[in-house]
Amino acid sequence: MVSGTPLAATHAFAEESAAQLQTQANSLASTVEQKRQEYADAQAAVNDLQAKIQDNEANIQEIQAKLPEERAKAAEAIRVLYKLQQNTPGLLDLLLSSDNFNDFISTLVYIDSVQSRNTAAVSELAQTQTELDNAEATLTAQKQQADEKAATAQQALQETKQALANARAKAEQQAAAEAAERQAALEAAQQALAEAQAKQEAESTSQDADSDAGKAEEDSGSSSSSTAASSGSATFTTNSGNTATVEIPQTVTVDPSAAETNVTSSEQQGWAARIDAYLAGSPLAGHGATFASAAAQYGIDPRLSAAISCVESGKGTYCFRSHNAWGWGSSNWGDWDTAINAHVAGLASGYGDVMAGGYTLSVAMARRYCPPTYLEWYASVASEMEKI
Fold first, then answer.
1. Residue 16 near residue 151 (C-beta atoms within 8 A)
2. 123 neighbors 71 (Cβ within 8 angstroms)
3. Residue 237: φ, ψ to 5°
4. pLDDT tens across 49-87, in order?
5. pTM for the structure as a whole
6. N-term to C-term CA, the chain
7. How far apart are CA 71 and CA 172, in angstroms?
8. What are the φ/ψ torsions at residue 128 (nearest 5 degrees)?
């Protein structure tokens, strides 16, 4: 009836809880943003290279537009100089037209200079075009690589977005399944309670009939014994071996914000006060701060351990081992604070994979914690959590 380690679920259940699936979805959402930024950066690089290619092509076209004129100028200068150098009458005419020999030499130097400048301009333009052609080839290769990188980034983004959509759908499906299972558990507990009440009413009717028959045989002065009617409540055996009454909660809500490790000091004090009020008058009274602190440390719903202690031992009143108010294995502890911390830590490590959102009570957890009567146990723990 009491095991040393958490028992495995006796029914089929999803490998991952809705809370875990939602955590995965949240992680994928962050990855989507990362992939979106990577794709944006890659596309920006493509656009930048495309702009450079367009600028380079514009420069090439500008040079190609200038080259014919510059080549014509250089050719004309070369032709004139050649004629002057090869045609003696031309040189003689140039000499005769000059005022003096120095002017003749200056004219020759000028013509040669013009030819040199034009030839240099042609060479410079040709060299610049060669450089631009090389740059165009380099930029084209770089853009091809950038296009491939952008395409890869886009594909990664689409795949991650699809994975996110699948994860969210799976989380919603699992959450719906858990909600349906919670409802089924409550309905089963309610049915057990109704059957217990019906049985008690039948027994009471039978006892009343027997009592009436006995009265007829007794003297009028004698008094009859009566059987006290019980409440008609259904009971079940807890994990610690105690008998507990089935309680039906009004609602079962999963509040992820209740189980956080980054709670403020004020929030933790608030939980401590609520738990202290719940435990008032019991052996666990005054230990609300320990429950709240341990819950914050391990990310467990602060109501859970205290509620389990009520179902399993009447808040520490009927412990089957020293300071073990939870039917927890075969453990003994020397004081309540040590016991509370150990139990909350055990909930996190032994049941976190099957807890509901916010590391709180779930039907799967009840099935593992108290297998034989997990439906009644779940409903009763949920009912106690409502009171905190």
1. no
2. no
3. -95, 125
4. 999 989 888 888 887 787 787 677 767 766 765 665 665
5. 0.56
6. 28
7. 75
8. -65, -40
